[in-house]
Amino acid sequence: MKYIPGKLNRLFTNYGMLPKDVIYDYPRVTMIGNIHLYIENHKGLLNFNEHEIIIKQDQGTIRIKGKQLVIKNLLAEEIVIEGVIDSVGWESSNT
Amino acid sequence: MVGRVLIHNLKGGAFIRKKLSYRGMVEVVVKGGQVEQFLTSLSVEGIQIENVSRIDENTVMVQVNYLAISTMKAKRKKYNCKLKFKNRYGMPFFYSKRKKWIPPLVGVVLSFLFILVLSNVVWNVAVDGGSPETRYEVNELLDTLGLKQGNWVQNMEDISTIEREIMNNIDEVSYVGISKSGSSYNILIEESETMEPNVEQDPANLVASKAGTVDSMFVINGRPLVEISDFVEKGDVLVTGELDEDGEVLTYAEGEVIAEVWYEIDVTVDLSQYLLSLSSDPQKRYSISLFESLEWMPRSSGDKRLLLTNDRPIYFLNWELPISFHEHYFYGEDEEITETEVDHHVQEIVEDQLKRKLGQSVDIIYQKVLHEERDSDKVKLEMFVKVLEDITEEQIIDQGD
Questions:
Q1: How does DSSP assign B160-226, residue by residue?
Q2: Which InterPro entries does the UniProt record give (chain B) (predicted)?
Q3: Any idea what DSSP says for residue B146?
Q4: What is the DSSP letter of B264?
Q5: Could you identify which of B18, B30, B250, B268 might form a hypothetical disulfide with B89, taking C-beta atoms 3.0 to 4.6 angstroms apart as the criterion?
Q6: Distance from the B93 Cα atom to the nearest Cα atom in chain A, whole angstroms
């Protein structure tokens, strides 16, 4: 049963009808250089300090490393991070 | 390095934004417990959290809207957090800090506006001097010119215009002086003594000012010496003031002697004329100027010709403010080239020009073109005309004393 919607989803996205973040419920991450990071569709803040921010998402976490990190804005669906961002990591809980 | 500078700038901008924010932000220090979970739960509630920064291991500083504080207080126990409120920014706090100041400030501003409005109203109009009838007439005229109690000063004509209008329209007035003191106007009028007709005129003859043949006469006073169809030379006595032959009973001669006079006149007629005329309905535009130089007109007039500008200064108490208000009248222009067909209209044109040369009262009875010369756009005519006109001229009789 699970197989069919997965296949359908791929069909939808492959033919470009809908963006992937909508279909898979993935977070959308937008970066401006290394100073500004914008994440949509997150599921909450897990941990946070000046050097590292961990954000929960559907499949796991997003780990942002950097210096002088500040959460500029925290809303139910969006998060804006500013600072000097060194890396953005993806940690999937399934694998 | 670049990133650091940029961050610094962003923070500076944020600071200004914080100060000017209309929402009213509060800086909250959250201590201990599960801070991240606490913040996440707040954001799920729909609270916007800004500038989250960690101070130390278990202390975080955030900024929230002041309306969110009650929710924060309700939730903090669940996550074992302690809240400490620090600085407050934004218009709501700015307002509440200066709340006491606002009513007097508004009062002062309103009173200034009130004085400004009242300074621009005609407060009192007093007409002095002259007879009651004249004063009444002057008052009526002043009303139509806008100098009326309770009217705006800006709606009023200039003082000099008003003076001129009074002088022109009311004959009895020989002097008008308008003095303005504050927003009240004193109008001083002086009546001329009515000139009674001079009964005792000096004895006088009527003599001919031109040579001609007498056509008709109408003598009011005096003894006529000529008869109809007599030919008179210039200087001949037409009507004498001496009632008897000896010259002892004298009077002033009065009357009209219409004579036929001949003229030889050169008339030039333009065949085509370029006329530039202004249309009769002007476009009215207003503008505001500051210090006479910075002028702003909300609606432009196109390329029409400016003919008239009325300045309307705005007063504050006794002073003229540098801001003034102007009325402009723009007139449209019509260009036209009129072509005259000489052959058809020569009669009218010549008559028109002759009347212009000889005076409006002449009556042309005969005209003949002696010589005609045509240029490219002009016709020169040498004409012989016979006209009927009054040739009398008063000559005072010298009585030798």
A1: HHHHHHHHHH-TTEEEEEEEEETTEEEEEEEEPPPPPP-SSPPPEEEEESS-EEEEEEEEEESEE--
A2: YqfD
A3: T
A4: E
A5: B18
A6: 22
Q: How far apart are the CA of A94 and the nearest CA of chain B, in angstroms? A: 22
User: Residue B243: CA atoms inside 13 Å, Cβ hemisphere, count?
Assistant: 9
Using an 8 Å Cβ cutoff, are A29 and A37 in contact? yes
Bridge partners for B312 per DSSP? B325
- Indicate the SS3 state at residue B117: helix
Mean residue pLDDT across chain B: 79
Residue burial B317-353, b: 16+ Cβ < 10 Å; e: rest: eeeeeeebbbebbbbbeeeeeeebebeeebeebbbeb
> Which DSSP symbol is given to B99?
G
- The reply to whether B27 touches chain A by the CB within 8 Å rule is no
Are A44 and B3 within 8 A, CB to CB? no
Give which of B1, B9, B25, B36 to mutate to test A binding, by max A Cβ within 10 Å: B36
Q: How do the domains of chain B map onto residue ranges?
A: 2-96, 124-191, 197-271+340-401, 274-335
Structural domains of chain A, with CATH = 25-92 (2.60.40.2000)
Q: Are B172 and B192 in contact (CB under 8 A)?
A: yes
Residue with tokens 């403010």: B321
Number of other CB atoms surrounding residue B80 within 10 Å: 13
pLDDT tens profile A20-32: 777 777 888 999 9
Amino acid at position A8, single letter:
L
Q: Which residues of chain A does B3 touch, with a Cβ-Cβ cutoff of 8 Å?
A: 33-35, 84
CB-based contact B54 A68, cutoff 8 Å: no
B381-396 pLDDT, tens digit each: 888 888 888 888 888 8
CATH homologous superfamily of B2-96 equals ACT domain (3.30.70.260)
Of B57, B48, B42, B5, nearest in space to A51 by CA: B57
pLDDT at B362: 78
Provide the phi-psi class of B81: left if phi over 0, else alpha when psi is between -120 and 50, else beta: beta
CATH class of B124-191: alpha beta
Q: Do the interacting molecules here have an ipTM over 0.90?
A: no
| Cβ-contact B147, B122 below 8 angstroms | yes
Q: Indicate the pTM of the whole model.
A: 0.43
The tokens for B293 are 């130089």
